[in-house]
Amino acid sequence: MEYLLHILIMIGIYSIVAMSLNLPAGFTGLISVAHAAFYGIGAYTTALLSLKAGIPFWLCLPTGVILTAAIAFLIAWPSLRTRDDYFVITTFAFQIIVFSILNNWVSFTGGPMGIPGIPQPSVFGVPLPSHGAFLCLVAAIGIAVYLFLNRLINSPFGRILKAIREDEIFVQSLGKNVTAYKMAAFVIGAALASIGGGLYAVYISYIDPTSFTVMESIFILSIVIIGGAGSLKGSVAGAAFLVSLPEILRFVGLPNAVAANVRQILYGVLLVLCMMYRPQGLFGEYAFNAHPKERKEVEDA
Description:
two-stranded antiparallel sheet, globular, mainly alpha
């Protein structure tokens, strides 16, 4: 039972992170490979504040959100002056910089040794008693993130984001500040990713830089692509599928070393098949890197 609860908790955390990436990537068309960096900033902020300053989780989490949003704004300001592949490269560079800082600033982040003994959140001074209680916490926050993003994307602001994704020049011709909207989507997505990072830190009680590499960013992007770009329920479905996949391999009887490699191969195969035969993913309404006319054909198919 504890094993099943663990899987559900991880699905919940990755659902939050995937939904946060879907806002800039799926709804706005900004493909970023720096999301694990924002995820990590949230995790390290929560871990360091709770351990070194004794600040409770309920204050650490919003602090991480604010800090991550500020950093994302500073990154978005120059990055959004580029487009398409160049934007991907700038986010990749930021991902590498954050990993290097986490890995080499030993006196502050613990370096490769990480940060152990992160305290779990408590309610009125009482720590959460079980995996089930923590799952309820993750589910509550996940539902709140879902409802917030659902409201956001169905608002006039969200409709402009979708319009930017479909035809940026047309939106500019209407007098809209496209850069400002892109920046808002990028910053909000990064801030929400930090929530998943904070939950991950207090759940695992130990973090190190290897949990926030570029491969983790690609994994999160894979969830968005396979689940469906431009679909919040697709992010949840993609997280459930890809988080459960390596656990299913455990029952096949493969050795651990082999199973890890098979998992990476399966991720690659699934991405190739998805881009070839269903580029909009399981529930998505948008196919990455497709011309607007081709996207319309995909949606009507």
